[in-house]
C-alpha cells in the first residue's frame, strides 16, 4: 500500500514560520500545498492505485482530490486515520459541512464530532494505528490502496516521520520495526 502525508496546509505554513499554533481549525491546503497535490498525479502515475482511503480533514481531502480525479476514483472517508489531536488544526468539520464542500463523498458514517476532543494520548493514536493496520492486513486490496493521512498518525502506523506531500510503500502485514 502507499501511505501519503497530506500536502502543506495553512497551519503547517504558519506554524513552520512562527513555531506557534496559529489557531486554525480544519485548515485548508496552502497555495504551495495545492501545487504539491497537483504534482502527486505525476509522481504517483506509475503506481497501481485502485482504492483511496482518506482522513476526513479538509487538508487530506484536498490532497487526495487531484489523484482521485485523475484515476476516476471516489475516496473512502475513514476517521480512524485522523491526526493525533494536539493542535487547533486537529479540530475537524461536522459531516454536514464536509458534505457541502465534497458532495461526491460519503460522510454519513461520521459522528457529528468525529475528531478527538482535547489532547490525544500517544497510546490512543498507536491503538488506532494498530486497528487500521489489522484492517488493511485483512483486506485483499491493500497492495493497490493509497492512504492519505497525517504526520502523527503515520508515525504510529509506519514508525517513520514523513514530510508534507511525501509518500512511501509499506506492507501492513509486516511488523513495525522495533524502536
TrEMBL record:
<dbReference type="GO" id="GO:0016791">
    <property type="term" value="F:phosphatase activity"/>
</dbReference>
<dbReference type="InterPro" id="IPR013078">
    <property type="entry name" value="His_Pase_superF_clade-1"/>
</dbReference>
<dbReference type="InterPro" id="IPR050275">
    <property type="entry name" value="PGM_Phosphatase"/>
</dbReference>
<dbReference type="GO" id="GO:0005737">
    <property type="term" value="C:cytoplasm"/>
</dbReference>
<dbReference type="Pfam" id="PF00300">
    <property type="entry name" value="His_Phos_1"/>
</dbReference>
<protein>
    <recommendedName>
        <fullName>Phosphoglycerate mutase</fullName>
    </recommendedName>
</protein>
<dbReference type="InterPro" id="IPR029033">
    <property type="entry name" value="His_PPase_superfam"/>
</dbReference>
Amino acid at each position: 500500500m502507499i501511505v501519503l502525508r497530506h500536502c502543506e496546509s495553512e497551519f503547517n505554513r504558519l506554524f513552520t514560520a512562527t513555531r506557534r499554533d496559529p489557531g486554525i481549525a480544519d485548515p485548508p491546503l496552502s497555495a504551495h500545498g495545492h501545487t504539491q497535490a497537483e504534482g502527486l498525479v505525476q509522481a504517483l502515475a506509475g503506481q497501481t492505485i485502485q482504492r483511496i482511503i482518506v482522513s476526513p480533514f479538509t487538508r487530506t481531502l484536498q490532497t487526495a482530490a487531484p489523484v482521485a480525479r485523475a484515476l476516476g476514483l471516489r475516496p473512502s472517508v475513514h476517521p480512524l486515520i485522523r491526526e493525533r489531536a494536539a493542535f487547533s488544526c486537529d479540530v475537524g468539520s461536522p459531516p454536514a459541512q464536509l458534505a457541502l464542500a465534497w458532495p461526491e463523498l460519503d460522510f454519513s458514517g461520521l459522528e457529528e464530532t468525529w475528531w478527538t476532543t482535547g489532547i490525544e494520548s500517544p497510546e490512543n493514536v498507536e491503538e488506532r494505528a494498530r486497528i487500521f493496520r489489522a484492517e488493511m492486513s485483512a483486506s485483499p486490496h491493500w497492495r493497490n490502496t493509497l492512504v492519505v493521512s497525517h504526520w502523527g498518525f503515520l508515525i504510529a502506523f509506519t514508525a517513520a516521520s514523513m514530510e508534507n506531500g511525501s509518500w512511501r510503500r509499506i506492507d501492513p502485514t509486516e511488523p513495525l520495526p522495533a524502536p
